[in-house]
Amino acid sequence: MIIGTHMSIAGGLEKTAKAVVAMEANTMQIFSRNPRGSNFKDPTDKEMAAFQEIRRKQGWGPLLAHAPYTMNPASNQEKIYEFACMVLKEDIARMDRLEIENMVFHPGSHTGIGVEEGIKNIVAALNQAITGEERIMVLLETMSGKGTEIGYEFEQLREIRDRAAHPERIGVCLDTCHIFSAGYDIVNDLDGVIYEFDRIIGLEHLKAIHFNDSCTPFGAKKDRHATIGNGEIGMEALLRVLTHPQLKALPFYLETPLEDSGHKEEIRMLKDKVGAA
Ligand code: FE
Ligand code: FE
Ligand code: ZN
Asked: How close is the Cα of 35 to the center of ligand 2, in Å?
């Protein structure tokens, strides 16, 4: 099982890696920059070496960087769009230099211009950011469809990927809370949802799972994460996701509302349940 949580790197990369080890996790997600958008300073060579040493020794799975929530590459407003283009371009390059395997972002909200126009903007933002020379994969996140969010239907994600100049560098990150909220019934028909994903996007493009329960009911199109087993998806359905033969080799990232100590318990509980199953 490859499992970790979202981690703050405010204390530096090496300290964060040690916290992951203490949590008994074997991967992590970090923000590619301060969530409010300002840049993190790059790690020193020494810190970078210490970080790489820890992850190699521990045999971690793929790492995931998350772009700031505040950016909106679907926007038609010049300043907002330029900021999103700049962040995508800079952070893809920076995270690639850190040898992080995947970077996920929210496709964005069209805020009234419509899904088609929004997708056009997203594709152009990706095309100015991805050179095709990277090792990193850029992942589109499945969204809940709150407000005017794009990416709550698998078809929308496929369209973005298909129209990009470098589709070979683009994958998908599936968020269990978001797709349940968007109306994909992973509680009663997980196989059907996986079949749909494969048919529309292709399972080979699924690179990561955001593993969350949902505070809001099926199809509510809201984005409120619950801790595992304490939401509307529930423990049994989430364990079926974690152990599904077509998913279980993927890296799972908890984005549940807990501190490090709570996440340590959550990871231990999941390992126990899977071990016992
Ligand atoms: Fe996200
Ligand atoms: Fe997520
Ligand atoms: Zn979310």
From this structure: 14
Within 10 angstroms of residue 140's Cβ, the number of other Cβ atoms is: 26
C-alpha distances out from residue 180 to 29, 150, 164, 185, 235, Å:
21, 15, 27, 6, 14
**Mean pLDDT of the region 20-47:** 88
Instruction: Judge contact between 130 and 169, C-beta under 8 A.
Output: yes
Residue 176, C-beta contacts closer than 8 angstroms, at least 6 positions apart: 186, 209, 210, 211, 212, 213, 214, 233, 238, 241
Question: Per residue in 104-159, pLDDT tens?
Answer: 999 999 999 999 999 999 999 999 999 999 999 999 999 999 999 999 999 999 99
Give the helix ranges, DSSP H, for the chain. 13-22, 45-58, 78-97, 115-129, 154-163, 176-182, 190-200, 235-243, 260-276
State the distance from the centre of ligand 2 to the C-alpha of 175, rounded, in angstroms: 5
| Ligand nearest the Cα atom of residue 208 | 2
Tell me the CA–centroid distance for residue 20 and ligand 3, in Å.
21
Cα 169 to ligand 3 centroid, rounded to whole Å: 23
206 Cα to the center of ligand 1, angstroms = 15
What's the Cα-to-Cα distance from 185 to each of 133, 242, 243, 264, rounded to whole Å? Answer: 37, 15, 17, 28
Ligand number nearest CA of 69 is 1
Tokens encoding 121: 């903007």
Q: What's the gap in Å between 58 CA and the centre of ligand 3? A: 28
